[in-house]
Write the structure tokens for this entry.
Amino acid sequence: MEIVFAVINVVVIGFLVLQLREQDKAIKDLTNRLVARNHSEYLSTRTEYERPPNDDPPKRLSWYDDPVEGDDE
């Protein structure tokens, strides 16, 4: 009976370790997004790519995302 509990504990601990590792990756990615000055700098900090890097900024979703005149972006 103790062997069953030991196996269950190992499986649960392994699952939690994998979950925490994925959570740390997400936190690191979000931190890099906040620290980057622009989109291309953010792309240069990424070490792994899901798709090829693209220097185009994300599409504007509303009028709020329109560039302001005199803005240096």
Q: What stands out?
A: The chain has two helices and no strands. Helices lie at 2-35, 39-45. The first helix runs from residue 2 to 35.
